[in-house]
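Supplementary Methods, section 5.1.

A reviewer requested that the exact input to the structure prediction be made available. We therefore reproduce it here, unchanged from the version used in the analyses.
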Amino acid sequence: MKVLVTGGAGYIGSHVVAALGARGYDVLVYDNLSTGYRDSLLCGRLIVGDLGDTGKLDRTIREYGPDAVMHFAGSIQVGESVLDPLKYYSNNSVNTINLLDAMMRHGVARFIFSSTAAVYGDPKTVPITEDEPVKPINPYGESKAFIETVLRDLSLVKDFRYIALRYFNASGADLQARIGERHDPETHLIPLVLKTAKGDREQIGVNGTDYPTADGTCIRDYIHVVDLAEAHLLSLDYLGDGGNSDVFNCGYGHGYSVNEVIQTVRKVTGKEFRVVESARRQGDPPVLVADSAKLKSRMNWNPRHDDLDFIVQTAWEWEKKSRP
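The structure derived from this sequence is encoded token-by-token as follows.
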């Protein structure tokens, strides 16, 4: 099977590309390398291109003839989306429509979409099921929720089936430390704390200590990126077997607070470092924890790395190899 992977040189995309390659898929990555890295690709071929370049995108799909598309290309920072919403609606919404339009022209009917728990906004029920109302509270979540609506409507009138995977907090690194989380600037908690432990940063900030949680800091469901990659391959199998379009949560069903993550990093690394408390960050709900029973039952997803110590350890092995 031929699989086109947009954004495949990024963090999650590169781990999925590695998993696809290990199972013998023919993989073509389409990435503008604005946030991805050539050396993150452990297999497959790379075309450097932007989804806004509709001519190049159209030629790529026509000439490659993929059986399915996995779409990871997009902007992901909640705080930045609040400050620069047009970037998010352009990159995450308009460019995804460009991709879908090219797929429709060339008869590509299977699509796996990188969505997010941010579509739920500040949920009323935790753990969150897929039946929770979609009410995003920041432009990042809005840009993804809009595409979920587009996908639903498209599947009603075209020979087109999709899976939207709503990620909770992807974390950790390849088990052999070949690839890992590498953003510039880095905004995700675990790599930021590890960089502080490593000495690349003077301190780690805690954004808000007055949330309605046990220790006052935000709680998130951290899912190992290798388990998340497996969910994508199962989604590909599911669509290949005739499965209907659907949305699935990707998480472990329990969460850890910011303070618990910091203490876990101290334990795993054996390092002490400075922690500075600051005000809440706009757009952050107090608790985001997944109910992934649907993914487990429909696709027989059986995560193997549901352990915060293990997640941090794999991320630490990668961080020790990476440059500041």
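The longest strand covers residues 110-116. These observations are discussed further in the main text.
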